[in-house]
Amino acid sequence: MAQSEKLLEIKNLQQYFNPGKPNEVRAVDNVSFDIYKGEVMGLVGESGCGKSTTGRTIIRLYDATGGEVLYDGVNVHGKKSKKQLKEFNRKMQMIFQDPYASLNPRLKIADVIAEGIDIHGLAKNKEDRMNRVYELLETVGLNREHANRYPHEFSGGQRQRIGIARALAVEPEFIIADEPISALDVSIQAQVVNLMKKLQKEKGLTYLFIAHDLSMVKYISDRIGVMYFGKMVELAPADELYKNPLHPYTQSLLSAIPAPDPISERTRKRKTYDPASHNYADNEVIEFREVTPGHFVLCSEKEFKQYQANSKK
Ligand SMILES: Nc1ncnc2c1ncn2[C@@H]1O[C@H](COP(=O)(O)OP(=O)(O)OP(=O)(O)O)[C@@H](O)[C@H]1O
């Protein structure tokens, strides 16, 4: 993984729904992180913590209510020409959780996959268009006979493969995968993750991989960010996060992963997270602080010192 070059810089990103109204939701509240070229950045947290909204705001499905998203140094949310917008739409693709809802049921698979090819004028002629579709089907482990079928004729895992082929059709650089395996049978989940991992390596793609628990992201992510109620509470290289989780919320998420063998599973203790346990004083500054190189935690100065001391042990 090339860790040196930043592809995306997410700075103080805010996405407030109904801002200023009694039903205001701070879905994304001052979140900052970078995504490096060629890496898989995992984003985890329980339902409703703002993961999808973060992804959707990064890719400009929503206008940010505050902050910036820089893609190769250019603000995604600033004023853009039609040409620039189209180029962003090509470079950044999204794979959704429910592959059935995201595939138009009336279109044949060839047309589902070729939609982006058509929009971006990537094929020279009809033959080239079909050849690209066939190649994409094979790339994702399907075959050319599938091109003339409709979405309902496929299983969930196959539909997710079609979703991946559709995203790849426009030769993107960056893919946001929003819980791409959550709706699939457990037996199929690993296959889809392995396919995504293989494609990422082969094509040098960069991913933001969103998941609600820490069990599967481990296998695909280089770094993982943990979100809680609109805030990023911890970010670290994947191994480090599993070995040395510092924020109590991350510890509770890790304790929720079932153990692989029955004996450890029987003795596994679940930790629950209580935000009141921090006991912050009113004047304490709670910031995202770098405890050890590359390991960030949302914490007070006092907690920061404790985390540093614990990390040295
Ligand atoms: N369009 C919207 N209008 C108002 N509130 C919204 C909207 N979209 C999301 N929210 C709220 O924003 C918060 C974050 O939602 P989001 O879907 O980003 O969370 P998530 O972590 O991705 O959850 P899930 O795993 O269930 O998709 C939630 O409280 C949700 O109800």
UniProtKB/TrEMBL annotation:
> Keywords, A to Z?
ATP-binding, Nucleotide-binding, Transport
Please name the PROSITE patterns in this protein's record: ABC_TRANSPORTER_1, ABC_TRANSPORTER_2
> One matching Pfam family, short form?
ABC_tran
> GO:BP terms for this protein?
peptide transport; transmembrane transport
Domain of life of the native organism: Bacteria
InterPro entries per the record? AAA+_ATPase, ABC_transp_ATP-bind, ABC_transporter-like_ATP-bd, ABC_transporter-like_CS, Oligopep_ABC_C, P-loop_NTPase
| MF-aspect GO terms | ATP binding; ATP hydrolysis activity
> Could you say which protein family the record assigns here?
Belongs to the ABC transporter superfamily.
Q: What's this protein's name?
A: Peptide ABC transporter ATP-binding protein
Question: Which species does this protein come from?
Answer: Neobacillus cucumis
